[in-house]
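Retro notes (design track)

What went well: tokenization of the new backbones is finally stable.
What didn't: we kept losing track of which sequence belonged to which structure.
Fix going forward: every design gets posted as structure first, then sequence, in one message. First example under the new rule, 144 residues:
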């Protein structure tokens, strides 16, 4: 990640090839947030996901923001804030539906698996029931 940060920091955006021009600070923060989420560094993942969302705009990045919102929800869950994380997850469900993206559904499914151990908590149970319709098969026992 240190090498990626150095490379990203030293690039000259005006000279980037067409295929990578979309990769701005919001995208970079999102990618690093994913890494920290997967490493269990919830505080860093949360901060970076929040930065990414604050820097992101435009409808063309709606799918990316779904990914980032679910990474943020997972980071919040990793901080032990089950109710807040599930509220965030519930707020993303309509956006997952709107994107019609299998990858977005996959990200939601990953978050469902992370929330499943908390299913006895009211907000987690509500989230799991809402997510069941979107994630579908394989999730039926997670929300019960």
């Amino acid at each position: 990640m240190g090498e990626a940060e150095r490379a990203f920091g030293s690039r000259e955006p005006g000279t980037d090839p067409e295929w990578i021009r979309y990769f701005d600070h919001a995208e970079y923060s999102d990618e690093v947030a994913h890494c920290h989420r997967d490493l269990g560094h919830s505080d860093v993942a949360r901060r970076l996901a929040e930065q990414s969302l604050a820097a992101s705009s435009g409808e063309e990045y709606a799918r990316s923001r779904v990914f980032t919102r679910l990474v943020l929800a997972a980071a919040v869950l990793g901080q032990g804030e089950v109710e807040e994380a599930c509220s965030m997850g519930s707020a993303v469900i309509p956006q997952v539906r709107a994107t019609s993206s299998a990858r977005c559904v996959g990200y939601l499914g990953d978050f469902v698996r992370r929330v499943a151990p908390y299913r006895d908590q009211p907000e987690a149970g509500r989230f799991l029931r809402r997510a069941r319709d979107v994630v579908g098969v394989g999730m039926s026992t997670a929300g019960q």
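Added context from the reviewer: The CA atoms of residues 132 and 139 lie 6 Å apart.
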